[in-house]
Amino acid sequence: MQSVIQSCQRIVIKVGSSLVTNEGRGLDHAALARWAEEIAALTRMGKQVVLVSSGAIAEGVKRLGWAKRPSMLHEKQAAAAVGQMGLVQGYESCFRQHSLQTAQILLTHEDLADRTRYLNARSTLLTLLQHRVLPIINENDTVVTSEIKFGDNDTLGALVTNLIDADALIILTDQRGLYTADPRNNPAAEFVHEAVAGSAELEQMAGGAGSSVGTGGMYTKVIAAKRAALSGAHTVIASGREPQVLTRLAAGEAIGSQLTAGTSRLAARKQWLADHLQVKGSVTLDAGAVKALRGGASLLPVGVVEVNGDFLRGEVVRCLSPDGVEMARGLVNYSSLETQKVLRQPTTKLEPILGYIDEPELIHRDNLVLLQA
Ligand SMILES: Nc1ncnc2c1ncn2[C@@H]1O[C@H](COP(=O)(O)OP(=O)(O)O)[C@@H](O)[C@H]1O
Ligand SMILES: N[C@@H](CCC(=O)OP(=O)(O)O)C(=O)O
């Protein structure tokens, strides 16, 4: 078996608290240095990497000299604020050795649930990647209340994977991967080398956290793999203590448990577009544009004759044929006001009319679902 990571270009890597903080004993600088070296090697291969790191609370608890992880939310938040300083300092200095710039991003659930904030988070992350900066993400623990909390970084890792259309999610933890039962208390548990992400039996195998430092255990990792697969991304759960784990995965070596996505990234994205998003308005196309879309092309402003309703960049609109029948829907690159200004215009006129150009297409073909043959 080959690792799918070899052919993946954009990868989210999540590292858990017990690994980052040596089971709560304090920041594991040697481990951070190893991952930094490997991630630098991945970026030299042309891969784009986003790191989701836990460990702020565990490190804060250690720095504050507390005997154990507190149960009060405010104490956890205080610990996270202290510990996050340690995390970013640690990562910054390790990645600097490899001339890699890093950026800290702290997110809450609301940032990804709100359409505008979601698009902003996406654009910022993609811009950082374009500039070869390594984003290091954690939950914004100091401001969250229980209602807006992701709660565990496995979920956050999967949502970031969906957000940036990553090809894969690698979850590094303190076990080799997924076993048929928690190996800490089931010596007979068997290792799962490969499975389809989202299969029901995986959720039955996975238990909670085995240590007092981690939160979600294997259950949240299996659910994260199911969620990552919704945008067509594969997940690998592997040990962060395995020597050269990241570079070996990138070389195609099958390490850890590989939970593959059933559908391709493009098919998944189109399914998601078709099913999940609220439709905000519509554009009416001319006959030429209808033909172009049916042939697999993107929608250009030149083929649009009318705009109906109010929509913003990133929202979903209906594409109507000249006789008013919905023939496609997709994610628009320009708002209704902007579209109004550029309809029937060739792409070369976008910049003179708008004063800027986001994308040459009104709807890119990857963001378009055809509804009729
Ligand atoms: N089926 C399983 N296979 C492997 N580990 C499991 C399983 N069920 C529960 N676990 C537990 O999940 C733990 C990893 O999750 P967690 O402690 O939350 O780590 P992290 O901090 O890396 O997120 C393992 O140490 C193990 O005890
Ligand atoms: N945001 C928290 C993450 C908590 C968490 O999910 O931990 P883990 O199960 O180890 O990934 C922190 O940095 O402590």
UniProtKB/TrEMBL annotation:
GO molecular function, one term: ATP binding
Listed Pfam families: AA_kinase, PUA
UniProt-listed GO biological process terms: L-proline biosynthetic process
Domain PUA: residue ranges: 281-363
Catalysis: reaction(s): L-glutamate + ATP = L-glutamyl 5-phosphate + ADP
EC number(s) reported in the record: 2.7.2.11
A GO cellular component entry from the record: cytosol
Places the protein is found: Cytoplasm
Enzyme class of the recorded protein, top EC level: transferase
Biochemical pathway: Amino-acid biosynthesis; L-proline biosynthesis; L-glutamate 5-semialdehyde from L-glutamate: step 1/2
Cited Gene3D superfamilies: Acetylglutamate kinase-like, PUA domain
Binding locations of ATP: K14, T173, D174, T215, G216, G217, M218, Y219, T220, K221
Domain of life, source organism: Bacteria
Alphabetized UniProt keyword annotations: Amino-acid biosynthesis, ATP-binding, Cytoplasm, Kinase, Nucleotide-binding, Proline biosynthesis, Transferase
Residues reported in the UniProt entry to bind substrate: S54, D141, N153
SUPFAM superfamilies: Carbamate kinase-like, PUA domain-like
Annotated function: Catalyzes the transfer of a phosphate group to glutamate to form L-glutamate 5-phosphate.
Family of this protein: Belongs to the glutamate 5-kinase family.
Designated name of the protein: Glutamate 5-kinase
Gene, per the UniProt record: proB
